[in-house]
Amino acid sequence: MKREVKNCIFAEIEMNSLAYALLAMVARKDCSGYELVQLLELFWQAKHSQVYPLLAKLEQKQYVAHRLVKQNGRPDKKIYRLTEQGREILSAWIHEEPAVPVVRDEFLTKIYAIWLTSTKRARELLHERIQYFTDMLTDRLLKIREMEERWSDDLYDPHSPQFGRYMILQRKTRLEQEEINWCHWVLERLKKD
Amino acid sequence: MKREVKNCIFAEIEMNSLAYALLAMVARKDCSGYELVQLLELFWQAKHSQVYPLLAKLEQKQYVAHRLVKQNGRPDKKIYRLTEQGREILSAWIHEEPAVPVVRDEFLTKIYAIWLTSTKRARELLHERIQYFTDMLTDRLLKIREMEERWSDDLYDPHSPQFGRYMILQRKTRLEQEEINWCHWVLERLKKD
DNA sequence: TTTTCATATATAAATATTGACATATTAAAC
DNA sequence: GTTTAATATGTCAATATTTATATATGAAAA
């Protein structure tokens, strides 16, 4: 009962979380690898060095296909689209239980041990954090506005390809706002010092 | 200008983010490896298979030291404490700029592509997510209450070893509450369907 | 005019992380 | 009575991820 029987003996791909994330992205909209890295940032950070080879494997498996797009001033790009087979395994995967989310945040380690140093450094860290999340939030709100202008009512239609991304953008802005609120709350606590 | 000169030629440890996280944890309170895995969950998930060998390396570097504690009904444990050298490099590290946070969340990939399947599955995913974060939140609030009963005023003193953990617990409850709020907001949007 | 930045793709080596295997004790559930 | 769960530590192989290197284009900045 140990051996999983795979459907092909050569070039077997481990369909991992990132692989499905890439399929989910190209399902909404045809994308280049370069663009995928940026879109992914919303909930699954990955470097291009991980994305490009994985896209090649997904194409080999025929879950995606690409066309070459020549550009005027820039290097050509490969625009990937989801194939019917890709759509099928992605749909099936959605019905499996999602893995627990993973978060790794160095800033919090530093706050954890901040008592060892100074409240000055604490304030510094918090102000930088506020700046970081404020920038993120600004960008996020811009993207929300862009989507609203382009798709309006579709964004609230669960059958629209845009629905998921819009909901997730909304979620991210809420969380980022809450991160900022918390920073201010901590800064208040540091004032007394 | 390529080669970084290291201070020792043998048994060199790559002091990575997890290593500092472990130091930060034992700085607050002496801990076993088993306990560290659990405490770490708050902002840096790691398996014991990563933690135990790393603790051994940190001890070899003399950043931590352990004592054996015999237990009545359970296996003996190694309780680690931070050494003076450990405290020094941890303090120094706090003054470096933190790496950007990393989040990887399969649930969001599924929501991203939910338009491919059914709103029934969407509701299912959201209800499970609410359950997950409600459980997390309950546990988190319990831990907050435990800390408040045990340390009361210390928790608002930035020089207390407990300060950081308390602030970070507060942050996590805020974010988890916001995750739940967002789920309900999305569920409202799915009702019309 | 030289550097830097954003766009674009790609690979190899190093490092980080997970999953599987291993062992041991006790209490509680079945 | 046997299994399951929680406590506790550890190793090794497999997988995932990052860092470094490479190349190419054009615009903008220094």
From TrEMBL, chains A, B:
Classification via SUPFAM superfamilies: Winged helix' DNA-binding domain
Occurrences of domain Transcription regulator PadR N-terminal (ranges): 22-90
Coiled coil feature spans: none
Entries under InterPro entries matching the protein: Tscrpt_reg_PadR_C, Tscrpt_reg_PadR_N, WH-like_DNA-bd_sf, WH_DNA-bd_sf
Superkingdom of origin organism: Bacteria
Domain (Transcription regulator PadR C-terminal): residue spans on this chain: 103-191
Protein name per Swiss-Prot or TrEMBL: Transcriptional regulator, PadR family
Top-level taxonomy: Bacteria, Bacillati, Bacillota, Bacilli, Bacillales
